[in-house]
Amino acid sequence: MKVVVFLLAVFGARVIIADDDPPQYADRECGTDLNNLWIDVVAVVDNSIGMTNDGLTSVAANLASVFSSGTRIGTNPKEPRTTRLGLVTYNAGATLNADLNKFQSLDDIYDNVFNDLSRVSSSDESNLEAGLALAENLLATQSTGTSRDHYKKVVVVYASAYNGDSPVPISWRLRSSGVVIITVAFVQLGDDTLLWQLANIASPGYNFTNVDDEGNLIGKIQEAFLETNCFCPNHWIQYQYNISDTTSYKYGICIEAIGMSAVWRAAKMSCANRWKNSYLATEFNQQKHDFIVDSIKTSITGFSQPYTYHIGLNMVKGKWVWDQPSGLAPLELQDWTNWVDGYPMSSSTQTAVLNMQINETVLTQWQNTDALKTSANYFCETAACDTDNYCTSAVNDN
Ligand SMILES: *[C@@H]1O[C@H](CO)[C@@H](O)[C@H](O)[C@H]1NC(C)=O
Ligand SMILES: *[C@@H]1O[C@H](CO)[C@@H](O)[C@H](O)[C@H]1NC(C)=O
Ligand SMILES: *[C@@H]1O[C@H](CO)[C@@H](O)[C@H](O)[C@H]1NC(C)=O
């Protein structure tokens, strides 16, 4: 019985990852392949007395375990999907134990990290500000502005306490420049101060502790790495479950609003030329439709009421289909539809679909129009950069 279940599981996984799958009528999810992780990580580890030697060795073990055996560590001229790890320790001040180029394999990590994190320092000061400043400097000199400029940058802080200058300003500066901060609090009994201090520093949802995570701290850090690795090129917005909640589920889909009008056929061409495999946006369900409308309301210029914008729905050989990446067959429209009452109108020329604002409650619905006559703004869509989809850059280099 076990064998059968196992085979089914393997078969299921193959079906999901095979390249020649028929396209799914669902929005793409972020890649989850740790072997193909491509990020730059700096671990910032407290080695003040409060951490204790046992605590520090536990950090070393946790840190080493986060990297899966298949993750390519270091750099590789043939395969860009690699992950680098730098190591900073801090007490009264900060020390650079490993810059981002030192570890070139998982063995290098094992050979060094346990040694670097074997004994606490003689200081009881825990100056996280100094640790973060050194991490910031490392990323600024060895990642930003280099051939890995577009790799997402992650700082993982392991702390038992902190004092000294406030690390909050520098953490905000790092986060506003796109660096993701993960914190792991080594909690002392009855002391919650550290927890809320670190929650202030961590990126939303990435404040963890060594005790509260049901033994799955490694899984949570890996998940944070994968989520971080899933990102959109500049000017594209990542589709997520709730646009007003930055911690809500993110899809492996990027949307770009074009606030300059064009007819549908030109909009389709324009979308195809914006990024690798981009196309006019799909609305498979209400949730995606709402996200697109909400994105206009929250963050986009060039749109004014009443809103009208092209999406990828169009009529091909008598069927309503969604535009797809070049080389893929269009996808036929399925269950969820959003037509204005009385639409689609039967017509040989009204073959393209526009979202049209119906009333002041900012409700948009579909109506079919002429693909060569009606001009409107439009939304393009593409796959996010992630472990399954390496991007050579974060700017439009197509
Ligand atoms: C993370 O921070 C939030 C508040 O920002 C808090 O509600 C949550 O309990 C924290 N998680 C942990 C594990 O400390
Ligand atoms: C989306 O997030 C906002 C802010 O957190 C919240 O107020 C709202 O209720 C959420 N909407 C849904 C549908 O969950
Ligand atoms: C807006 O239009 C929708 C769909 O036609 C309708 O159900 C709703 O009542 C309208 N709202 C207002 C305020 O007119």
From TrEMBL:
PROSITE patterns per the UniProt record, alphabetical: C_TYPE_LECTIN_2 (PS50041), VWFA (PS50234)
Pfam families: VWA
Sequence ranges assigned to domain C-type lectin in this UniProt record: 250-368
Endoplasmic reticulum keyword on record: no
InterPro entries according to UniProt: C-type_lectin-like (IPR001304), C-type_lectin-like/link_sf (IPR016186), CTDL_fold (IPR016187), VWF_A (IPR002035), vWFA_dom_sf (IPR036465)
Claim: Signal is one of the keywords in the record: yes
SMART domains: CLECT, VWA
Signal peptide limits: 1-18
Keywords of this entry: Signal
Official protein name in the record: Uncharacterized protein
Classification of source organism: Eukaryota, Metazoa, Ecdysozoa, Nematoda, Chromadorea
